[in-house]
């Protein structure tokens, strides 16, 4: 259902956004994919979620967990959500404020993506950064040339989170 015929065809009403997010939450809970989770912050606001990704095995992030904030715009899924790391992060494609440079959250966004695919993409980004487009140039350089120092700086910034 659309807001009105005079507005853009890609702006759904609030009910369809809520329905879509409820469906995505159910899919995420039922799929039980290891290493990722996300839930609305409150029952009254489905547009703000908290998420968690675990670091992939055989990467500097193995055994580490990171909190994320997910904020969905009123015209989701036609516009990408805003995702940030809440946990301190050391990564070539994440700045010191937690902002993420990932093409599917920007120019390559598609309405076919959902919370689960976003979290899996972020988990994959931890294993395979895009060093051609770094937000943290030092991390990108160390990823390529000194994994031991990279891991030291990552652990220096890391803060344990409670489940």
Automatic annotation (TrEMBL):
Record keywords: ATP-binding, Nucleotide-binding, Transferase, Ubl conjugation pathway
Domain of life: Eukaryota
Keyword field contains Transferase: yes
Molecular functions (GO terms): ATP binding; ubiquitin conjugating enzyme activity
BP-aspect Gene Ontology terms: deactivation of mitotic spindle assembly checkpoint; ubiquitin-dependent protein catabolic process
Pfam families: UQ_con
Record keyword Protease present: no
E.C. designation(s): 2.3.2.23
Residue ranges annotated for the UBC core domain, each copy included: 16-163
Active site as annotated: 101
Family: Belongs to the ubiquitin-conjugating enzyme family.
This protein's name: E2 ubiquitin-conjugating enzyme
Organism for this UniProt entry: Kuraishia capsulata CBS 1993
